[in-house]
Design goal:
Blueprint: E1 4-7, H1 13-24, E2 28-33, H2 36-49, E3 54-58, H3 64-72, E4 83-86, H4 102-130, E5 133-138, H5 151-170, E6 176-183, E7 186-187, H6 190-194, H7 199-204, E8 212-213, H8 214-225, E9 235-238
Parallel strand pairs: 1-2, 1-4, 2-3, 4-5, 5-6, 6-9, 7-8
Helix pairs in contact: 1-2, 1-8, 3-4, 4-5
This protein binds NADPH dihydro-nicotinamide-adenine-dinucleotide phosphate and 2-hydroxyethylsulfonic acid.
The site of NADPH dihydro-nicotinamide-adenine-dinucleotide phosphate (NDP) has 29 residues, from helix 1, helix 4 and helix 6.
Length: about 250
């Protein structure tokens, strides 16, 4: 209640569900993403039902200067960020190593790794000054196991896992909690983006299973964020009941 929560990638999927969950609890939000129109729609939808303050900011997390100038330009009130949810990310393509597009690789590394670092590096000093904060990093089961044609998406999420652990160690002395969230299949725009708008391929990812949805992950994040000051969940792997790991998915016939 009345916390300030910065959510990257709030225009869709898990990030949007997080915005809904935290707003419903009375928290004030900074919601970001590249699609400004969606941010404004989300803001006005949430403010119709919840008496919260919402700041929107449209920028590409790959753009270090844009990230830095947005955080540097926050008013004193909005600088009091309690929770940072580093959620913006994507998979681009699902191809064998030898067939994959190097530009896809660059986009995934620049977004999932560099973007997360830029945002964190800009926000951490604000948390250090307040001697508290909670950073929640969106990993994936792809950051725990490498699967066929997952190559650089997996590499980007393995990097998130390492950064998550490293941050937790280095930020201990500043009383900053760091939590890694590692979902399996969540039905969002993720697969549509991964398969470049191919709706059949995207839908196929979730056929024969009841996948996770954004709100399942948002509920989990909200739980982690609401624990007492002295409790930190370090790392969570979450799948739907029909998925055991990155390889084993029990699909209905
Ligand atoms: P969506 O595609 O629905 O949402 C992705 C969000 O990230 C959008 O809000 C998008 O906003 C934002 N985003 C992507 N690229 C950029 C960028 N360069 N700059 C700023 N924002 C960006 O997918 P999900 O909600 O599923 O994905 C959220 C996170 O969860 C990602 O990190 C993903 O890797 C991870 N994840 C997803 C899983 C799944 O199965 N869906 C499973 C495990 C992890 P916009 O396009 O407006 O910029
Ligand atoms: C998204 C889940 O299994 O497609 O990170 O890699 S998976």
């Amino acid at each position: 209640m009345n916390k300030i929560v910065l959510i990257t990638g709030a225009t869709s999927g898990i990030g949007e569900a997080c915005a809904e969950k935290f707003a419903a609890a009375g928290d004030n939000l900074i919601i970001t993403g590249r699609r400004a129109e969606r941010l404004e729609e989300l803001k006005s939808r949430l403010q119709k039902t919840h008496p919260v303050k919402i700041l929107t900011a449209s920028f590409d997390v790959q753009d270090r200067k844009a990230v830095e100038s947005f955080i540097a330009g926050l008013s004193e009130e909005w600088q009091q960020i309690d929770i940072l949810i580093n959620n913006a990310g994507l998979a681009a393509g699902r191809d064998f190593f030898e067939d994959a597009d190097i530009e896809d690789w660059e986009r995934m590394l620049n977004t999932n790794v560099h973007g997360l670092l830029y945002v964190s590096k800009a926000v951490v000093p604000l948390m250090i000054a307040r001697k508290k904060g909670h950073i929640i990093n969106m990993g994936s089961i792809a950051g725990k196991e490498v699967y066929e044609k997952g190559n650089v998406y997996c590499a980007s999420k393995f990097a998130v896992d390492a950064i998550n652990r490293a941050m937790r160690i280095d930020l201990l002395k500043h009383n900053i909690k760091v939590t890694g969230i590692h979902p399996g299949a969540v039905e969002t725009e993720f697969s549509l983006v991964r398969f470049r708008g191919d709706e059949t391929k995207a839908a196929n990812t979730y056929t024969g299973i009841i996948p996770l949805i954004g709100s399942d992950i948002a509920d989990t994040i909200f739980y982690c964020a609401g624990l007492p000051e002295h409790v930190c969940i370090n790392d969570l792997i979450i799948t739907c009941t029909q998925q055991a790991d990155a390889f084993y998915i029990y699909k209905n016939a």
